[in-house]
Write a structure and sequence with these properties.
Layout (H helix, E strand, L loop, with lengths): L8 H18 L6 E9 L4 H15 L2 E7 L23 E7 L6 H12 L4 E4 L23 H6 L1 E2 L3 E11 L14 E10 L3 E2 L3 E12 L5 E14 L2 E6 L5 H4 L2 H14 L11
Parallel strand pairs: 1-2, 1-3, 3-4, 4-11
Antiparallel strand pairs: 5-8, 6-7, 6-9, 9-10, 10-11
Length: 278
């Protein structure tokens, strides 16, 4: 006498699917990256941009952005971090978005750099590139000198910018982790400032390049060009920088916020699906 046994898979499969779905849904997000955003100083609407950046970054990644801000609009803003080399002790990364072009005291600059010398990665936005300069920024600073310490951290020395005009941004390195899956390779901004490149250090890796068409007084046109986004190896510490981001409209643009968020995650070595929000 033979017997046949037939298993009804439908209820069992349903249980498996429900269990798998509950397991995925119950997976806890990673411990958020703690980022310190520093804003304030000359020439920009930092009061608005600090909140645009915080909201935009936190919406895109598992990052909590704390802020140190001053409403002072001078080129020497009295930021609370000055004189305190341990200002970033409890943070995973520092976002420099200050405009402090007149801060030239080597002791202050050294203290600002202290966390990065200890391995805390950095993100630098727009006027941070024109901050903490000693002497004539048009003259190439010697590496290892006091004049060169901020440039060594950034990876590029810049001394000024052109007129406020649209910028055509193009990807140089399409294989860099920041640009892979970024969602765009070319982007034309509204009016922006194209920062020049006095010197590109060997430690810096260009990511985006930009051009501006400038009309001269006689009606003729010329093309200005510069690297506007790059990664830097600061003694083993990852540093991401973009000189884009003068106006609120640019800072609030998805192109910009996606770029800055991915740059931040790359600097923290966390640019992966675990930290990126869907």
């Amino acid at each position: 006498m033979s017997m046949s046994f037939r298993l009804n898979w439908s209820p069992l499969l349903a249980v498996i699917l429900v269990f798998s779905s509950e397991s995925l849904n119950s997976a806890e997000p990673p411990k958020p990256i703690r980022a310190l955003l520093i804003t304030g100083g000359c020439c920009h609407d930092y009061a608005a941009q600090k909140d645009i950046l915080k909201k935009g970054i936190e919406a895109r990644a598992h990052v909590v952005v704390d802020q140190i801000h001053t409403d002072d609009t001078s080129t020497a803003p009295p930021l609370a971090v000055f004189g305190n080399p341990d200002y970033a002790k409890s943070y995973d990364i520092v976002i420099h978005d200050e405009c402090a072009a007149a801060i030239s005291d080597p002791a202050i600059i050294s203290a600002v750099l202290a966390p990065h010398k200890k391995g805390i990665p950095g993100v630098n936005l727009h006027c941070a590139v024109h901050s903490y300069r000693i002497g004539n920024a048009k003259e190439i600073a010697e590496l290892g000198s006091e004049r060169g310490m901020w440039f060594a951290y950034l990876g590029i020395q810049s001394s000024g910018h052109g007129p406020k005009l649209p910028m055509a941004i193009k990807t140089i390195d399409s294989k860099h982790p920041i640009t892979v899956d970024l969602g765009w390779s070319n982007w034309t901004t509204g009016n922006e400032e194209l920062y020049n490149n006095v010197e590109l250090l060997k430690t810096a890796s260009p990511i985006h390049h930009s051009t501006q068409i400038v009309t001269q007084k006689d009606g003729s046109t010329s093309e200005a060009e510069a690297i506007v986004t790059w990664a830097n190896d600061f003694g083993g510490t990852r540093v991401f920088t973009t000189t884009v981001g003068h106006y609120n409209e640019t800072v609030a643009d998805d192109h910009y916020l996606d770029l800055v968020t991915r740059g931040l995650l790359w600097a923290c070595d966390k640019l992966n699906p675990t930290y990126l929000k869907p």
